[in-house]
């Protein structure tokens, strides 16, 4: 074991499919534990935004425009009480990251090895510093297998679709339930079947199905397991 690979890191890794409530729970758990909260989906979304702005939003994995945009990439994170702010080349792009279009590009390009490689060190170094709750798809399996607590979230697709629909309606968007459900099932397939860092339950992770739980119940469950 080397200094850069400790046996256990004081951290909570939360992985799970789209709209399983990862970020909501991770933010609350971080608040309770006094830890930093990092939503790694926002990093993939920042890369998607950078590619889109460079005209490489449609690029395939071996496209020179993808590699050119990745080599110009400068992503940084600023943790705040309400979550991380993400900057691209020093400019705060946080408000643009939740757009549906950016989510779709992120879902596609996150399967590319070059994209995952570009974000690995940033995530690993943040995670190794500890006192962090990190959510994503591969935190417990790839980024920080040494996390003291690893959680794999599940929720029925129909429950996730209803939660996502409520979020969209709150932000003034009107989309049909069927469209949201189809998008969730589509993302599940892509996230679970990609060759590199697929969404899987990490060894030693605890499964938490939130289909019939409130946010408060799920947060308390995670915090109790950590302690
Ligand atoms: O969680 P999210 O919807 O904000 O994530 C955006 C996309 O990024 C999602 O389609 C999957 C991908 N992602 C990933 O591959 N690995 C992570 N650790 C986090 C997100």
Question: What does this entry look like structurally?
Answer:
- The structure is a single chain.
- The chain is an alpha/beta fold and 227 residues long.
- It has 9 helices and 8 strands.
- It has one domain (9-221): P-loop containing nucleotide triphosphate hydrolases (Rossmann fold).
- It has helices at residues 22-33, 41-53, 64-71, 100-109, 113-128, 139-143, 157-170, 177-193, 215-226, and strands at residues 9-15, 36-39, 75-80, 83-88, 91-92, 132-136, 147-154, 206-209.
- It is globular.
- The two termini are 26 Å apart.
- 39% of the residues are buried.
- The mean pLDDT is 92.
- Bound molecules: 2'-deoxycytidine-5'-monophosphate.
- 2'-deoxycytidine-5'-monophosphate is lined by residues 18, 40-41, 44-45, 103, 106-107, 110, 136-138, 187, 191.
Provide a concise account of the structure shown.
By secondary structure, the chain is an alpha/beta fold. It has a single domain, classed as P-loop containing nucleotide triphosphate hydrolases (Rossmann fold, 3-Layer(aba) Sandwich), CATH 3.40.50.300.
Fold blueprint:
Layout (H helix, E strand, L loop, with lengths): L8 E7 L6 H12 L2 E4 L1 H13 L10 H8 L3 E6 L2 E6 L2 E2 L7 H10 L3 H16 L3 E5 L2 H5 L3 E8 L2 H14 L6 H17 L12 E4 L5 H12 L1
Helix pairs in contact: 1-9, 2-4, 7-8
Bound molecules: 2'-deoxycytidine-5'-monophosphate.
Unreliable stretches: none
What's the Cα radius of gyration?
Answer: 17 Å
Ends: how far apart?
A: 26 Å
For the biggest sheet, the summary is:
5 strands, parallel
**Ligand set:** 2'-deoxycytidine-5'-monophosphate
* CATH homologous superfamily title: P-loop containing nucleotide triphosphate hydrolases
CATH T-level topology: Rossmann fold
Q: What is the tally of beta strands? A: 8
**What is the average per-residue confidence, as pLDDT, rounded to a whole number?**
92
**CATH architecture type:** 3-Layer(aba) Sandwich
* Oligomeric state of the chains in view: single chain
In total, how many domains does the architecture comprise? 1
Q: Which percent range describes the beta-strand content? A: 15-25%
Order of helices and strands: EHEHHEEEHHEHEHHEH
The helix count comes to: 9
- Shape assignment: globular
Please identify the top-level CATH class: Alpha Beta
- What would you call the structural class? alpha/beta
What percent of residues adopt helix (DSSP H or I)? 40-55%
């Amino acid at each position: 074991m080397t200094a850069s690979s400790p046996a256990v890191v004081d951290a909570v890794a939360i992985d799970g499919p789209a709209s399983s409530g990862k970020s909501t729970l991770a933010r609350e758990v971080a608040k309770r534990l006094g830890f930093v909260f990092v939503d790694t989906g926002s990093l993939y979304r920042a890369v998607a935004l950078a590619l889109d702005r460079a005209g490489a939003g449609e690029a395939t994995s071996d496209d020179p425009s993808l590699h050119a945009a990745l080599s110009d990439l400068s992503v940084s994170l600023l943790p705040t009480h309400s979550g991380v702010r993400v900057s691209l080349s020093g400019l705060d792009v946080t408000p643009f990251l939740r757009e549906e279009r950016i989510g779709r590009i992120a879902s596609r390009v996150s399967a590319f090895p070059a994209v995952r490689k570009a974000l690995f060190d940033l995530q690993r170094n943040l995670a190794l510093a500890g006192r962090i709750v990190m959510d994503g798809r591969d935190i417990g399996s790839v980024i920080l297998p040494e996390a003291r607590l690893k959680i794999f979230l599940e929720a029925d697709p129909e429950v996730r679709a209803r939660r996502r629909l409520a979020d969209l309606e709150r932000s003034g968007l009107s989309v049909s339930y069927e469209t949201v459900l189809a998008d969730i099932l589509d993302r599940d397939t892509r996230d679970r079947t990609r060759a590199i860092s697929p969404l899987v339950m990490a060894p030693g992770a605890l499964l938490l199905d939130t289909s019939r739980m409130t946010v408060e119940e799920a947060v308390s469950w995670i915090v109790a397991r950590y302690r």
